[in-house]
Task: inverse folding
């Protein structure tokens, strides 16, 4: 370690600030002289002109040229999309929405079977894995003889949810998904943020997956 | 009819129309323009949401929303303030600016009986100025207060606005407000010196302190006052830069905003809220308009439209003396009726003022704030010597060559 330091110093002896004193205990502890350049121009006129040039260029460009498309804004501005466009980066949510990444985690939804019944079998994997304890399931006997259980109550407290997606990972039968690309809606009372089974199923679509996350996503609706 | 014209020519009426009707709306619009413009300089969109139903107008209505908000906010008065001075300070900040507008010539003199005639400047010069009759009777002057000491009056009145800030800081019973008030008074005092002296060169060249006279005559009697080369910007460029700098300091806006320093160092109106704070705010924006109007009047030809003489557009004319008045004549003339000339000149004044307001906002959002010592250095060690040198050189040139 110390040898490499010594090597560095011997390689570039001229560089760096002027050393006034070196500590006898540790040669790396030194007193140096800091030289800060004086302001060459105390009128600031040249600097003011340069700055005004920059701001006027931005102002003029943003005033005269059309805005970038929402697609270009969402992609961080690929060169082909931003030619002859201005520099404004503002996205006017909610009128304009950029396309979220493929794996963006939005509000939860409960997937449906072919007959419209809930796919969830109340296996309790998701409330078990949930780090925020935001999922409440009360299981009940299913009327379908081939299915053992179904949730009587399925509630997710979107205020407690940390949007980690572990529930989706844990689900063995593609019953819960977070691919709605919707945000949790602003609410005035805390209880309003608790999503019940009906509202979760209201966002759901029929999933034909046998296991895992196969099947149509929110992108395929378009 | 002439009673109506007399009422229109009364200073109070003109003040109502010009200051309340034009300046105040422009100043309120500037609050929106500043936010919108700063946003566009910083690659943002800025406020564009305020609307009445479907009428959005790119967010211009924000200034109405702001005004409504300020009026209906709680007028909070802290327990230990000096109530009288606390209430007086915002009025002291606002009123002098509104009064100072009385010296600004907003447009040419309007002769209501010859609105649709092409004006004859020789007949105008021949008519008795104290008792004009016939076509030139009932003249309406677009300047409320025409006095020989016009610009000195403005210096005197605008100095009173200083007391607004200082008294606000004192009356607030708040250490930070007091410090802000002190910074305010020190800055104003330092920069008023350079501000006044920088106009001295203009007075030397024009030979008058009256803004209407400067606009009506220009720098040289050999050229038409409507010729842009006859405006003071060409004759006193140093004074223009000095005056612009000093007057931006006078409006207490960045880069000279240490009296306010809203986010960090806390200014003199920290204890103010609601409409009292709004009055400080409005005073600041009216000062921007006023400074623009003064610069336009003194340096940029005021209401003069380029090459537009009272009788129409003229290229290649010359000046003759007629009954003590310099009249631009000869050359190629495109004659226009009096109403067209007046409205063009009125519009030219408005456009110049708006452009200068834009430029002031541009500077405000470009430059960072000066430190207090840099501010004093700039004021006393740079602006003051430069303005003194400008007076000396101007006087020497005038003495030797003109």
Result:
């Amino acid at each position: 370690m110390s040898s490499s330091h010594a090597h560095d110093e011997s390689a570039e002896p001229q560089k760096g600030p002027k050393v006034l004193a070196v500590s006898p205990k540790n040669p790396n502890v030194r007193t140096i002289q800091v030289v800060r350049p004086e302001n060459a121009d105390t009128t600031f006129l040249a600097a003011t002109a340069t700055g005004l040039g920059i701001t006027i260029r931005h102002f003029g460009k943003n005033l005269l040229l059309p805005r970038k498309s929402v697609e270009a804004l969402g992609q961080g501005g690929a060169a082909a999309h931003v030619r002859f466009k201005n520099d404004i980066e503002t996205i006017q949510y909610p009128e304009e929405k950029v396309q979220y990444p493929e794996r963006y985690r939005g509000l939860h939804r409960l997937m449906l079977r072919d007959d419209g019944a809930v796919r969830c079998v109340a296996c309790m994997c998701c409330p078990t894995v949930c780090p925020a304890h935001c999922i409440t399931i009360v299981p009940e006997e299913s009327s379908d003889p081939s299915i053992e259980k179904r949730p009587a109550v399925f509630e997710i407290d979107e205020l407690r949810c940390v949007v980690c997606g572990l529930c989706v990972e844990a689900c063995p039968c593609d019953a819960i998904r977070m691919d709605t690309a919707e945000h949790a809606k602003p609410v005035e009372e805390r209880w309003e943020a608790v999503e019940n089974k009906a509202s979760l199923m209201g966002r759901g679509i029929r999933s034909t997956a046998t296991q895992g996350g196969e099947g149509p996503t929110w992108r395929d609706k378009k | 009819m002439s009673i109506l014209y007399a009422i229109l020519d009364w200073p109070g009426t003109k003040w109502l129309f010009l200051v309340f009707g034009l300046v105040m709306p422009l100043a309120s619009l500037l609050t929106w323009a500043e936010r919108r413009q700063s946003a566009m300089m910083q690659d943002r969109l800025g406020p564009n949401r305020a609307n009445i139903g479907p009428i959005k107008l790119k967010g211009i209505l924000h200034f109405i929303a702001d005004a409504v908000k300020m009026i209906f906010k709680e007028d909070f008065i802290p327990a230990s303030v000096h109530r009288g001075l606390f209430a007086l300070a915002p009025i002291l900040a606002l009123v002098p600016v509104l009064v100072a507008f009385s010296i600004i010539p907003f447009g040419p003199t309007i002769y209501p009986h010859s609105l649709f005639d092409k004006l004859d400047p020789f007949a105008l010069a021949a008519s008795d100025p104290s008792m004009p009759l016939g076509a030139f009777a009932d003249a309406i002057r677009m300047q409320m207060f025409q006095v020989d000491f016009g610009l000195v009056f403005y210096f005197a009145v605008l100095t009173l606005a200083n007391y607004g800030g200082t008294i606000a800081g004192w009356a607030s019973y708040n250490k930070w407000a007091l410090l802000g008030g002190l910074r305010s008074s020190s800055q104003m005092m330092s920069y008023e010196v350079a501000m006044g002296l920088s106009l001295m060169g203009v007075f030397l060249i024009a030979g008058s302190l009256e803004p209407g006279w400067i606009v009506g005559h220009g720098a040289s009697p050999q050229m038409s006052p409507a010729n842009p080369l006859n405006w003071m910007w060409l004759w006193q460029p140093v004074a223009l830069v000095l005056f612009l700098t000093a007057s931006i300091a006078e409006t207490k806006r960045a880069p000279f905003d240490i009296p306010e320093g809203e986010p960090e160092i806390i200014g003199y109106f920290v204890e103010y809220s609601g409409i009292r704070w709004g009055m400080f705010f409005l005073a600041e924006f009216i000062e921007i308009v006023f400074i623009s109007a003064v610069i336009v009047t003194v340096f940029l030809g005021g209401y003069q439209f380029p090459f537009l003489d009272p009788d129409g557009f003229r290229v290649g004319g010359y000046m003759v003396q007629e009954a003590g008045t310099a009249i631009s004549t000869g050359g190629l003339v495109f004659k226009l009726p009096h109403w067209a000339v007046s409205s063009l000149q009125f519009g030219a004044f408005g456009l110049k003022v708006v452009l200068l307001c834009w430029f002031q906002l541009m500077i405000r959002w470009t430059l960072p704030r000066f430190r207090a010592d840099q501010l004093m250095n700039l004021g006393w060690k740079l602006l003051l010597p430069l303005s003194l040198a400008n007076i000396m050189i101007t006087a020497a040139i005038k003495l030797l060559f003109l």
Q: What stands out?
A: The beta strands of chain B are 308-309, 312-315, 318-322, 325-329, 332-335.
